[in-house]
Design brief:
This protein is of the alpha/beta class. It has helices at about 10-15, 25-35, 45-55, 65-75, 85-95, 100-110; strands at about 5, 40, 115-120, 130, 130-135.
């Protein structure tokens, strides 16, 4: 993987959440790798969400000064700003992919930064949305389901065109 990787708020929070014994080391490992490879990307939306949640909702929360140091460090990832163009792109994603607004903004920001992958646990791992591959880092890659937006032929409830088959003992 050499393309930039977009990191959603929940991954940043898990890296700081000592109560998440299984997820914290995974999130921290991903972030360390992204720093080493210089592939991490995010948005001003994510940084804002991170600051609020890490100081107010995480138990125990970080002191504001420490949370701000995290945000200042993440500015090196050149966060995507929310501007008119991003809002228009997010609206298209919301409409076309039937995503919630905040998730649409995240996907639009990942697209705007040329990210191949979006690390999040909020969207279906294995899906590809507008050219961005969704990856839940807490789900082993081998077991990640591939998103399918079509009903497989075997699962269709309706027969194809033509006259229905007669069933024994059941009048048509």
């Amino acid at each position: 993987m050499s393309a930039p990787v977009f990191v959603d708020t929940n991954i940043l929070l898990y890296a700081r959440d000592a109560a998440e014994l299984a997820k914290q080391p995974v999130a921290a490992e991903w972030l360390a790798w992204l720093w080493r490879e210089r592939l991490g990307r995010t948005s001003t939306q994510v940084l804002s969400e991170y600051y609020v949640n890490v100081t107010r909702k995480l138990k125990p929360g970080l002191p504001a000064a420490e949370a701000w140091e995290d945000v200042k460090a993440l500015l090196a990832w050149r966060p995507q700003t929310v501007d008119a163009a991003l809002l228009r792109q997010a609206r298209d994603i919301e409409r076309d992919w039937k995503l919630g607004w905040w998730d649409s903004l995240i996907v639009a920001a990942a697209q705007a930064q040329g990210c191949d992958t979006l690390l999040t646990e909020d969207l279906q791992s294995g899906a590809t949305i507008g050219g961005v591959n969704i990856r839940n880092p807490f789900v082993p890659a081998a077991t990640q389901p591939t998103a399918s937006y079509e009903v497989p032929a075997a699962a269709r409830r309706h027969r194809g065109p033509g006259r229905p088959k007669k069933r024994a003992g059941i009048p048509l």
